[in-house]
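Dear support,

I submitted the protein below through the web form. The confirmation email said the job was done, but the results page showed an empty box. After a refresh the structure appeared. I'm attaching both so you can tell me whether what I see now is the final result or a partial one.
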Amino acid sequence: MDGPGTVTWEEFLENAEKFLVVSAKISDGWELRGDKDIPGEAYLVRRAKCFVPNDSATKKDGSTGDDDDAEEFHVKFREDPHEATSTSETPFIIEHHILWSVSYSVPVLFFNGWKSDFPGINPVSVNEAQTVHGSKLNYTELSQAIHPIVGTPFLQLHPCLSQGLLQTMSKSKNKLVSWLSCVASAALNLKIHPEYFKLTH
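What the results page shows now:
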């Protein structure tokens, strides 16, 4: 698919390579995996560790329990990710993947979070991911999907809204960064370092 609001595979790779140069410069941890020679088969990935309140900790309203639908989910990033600062916190691993959608010709964000020291243990639900700020996200196209490259379940920001976003970024010199800055907060509060924005102009 080509036209306004789309990104070619070549443009995605070019934007991704520049993104990786900045990531290496600021030690942000992004890397490129997969086969760049096959459209849609390479992707950006980063894994990070932080800490979140334990499920058994008291919630803001004073109640306790593990009702995922009602629980407010607050991610606390720490400078030193190796130890929790108190017994009321638990390790939390977040993994973000930025792919190129063959069907939509746009970038697409897949991510997972695990309230554990080990990926795959105690995954974050769609409901928890949508309340990461303590209030419902406006981004409604969040769902679970099978990752098209690694073949395991991930949370996904559906690419159907990305064309509209990209149409407003036609003058950006790095549409990947511009797009990511718009959708990152819906993906377990992904933070984009200001250094990346220099790529867009």
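Response: this is the final, complete result; the empty box was a page-load delay. The beta strands are 31-34, 42-53, 89-100, 107-114, 142-146, 153-157.
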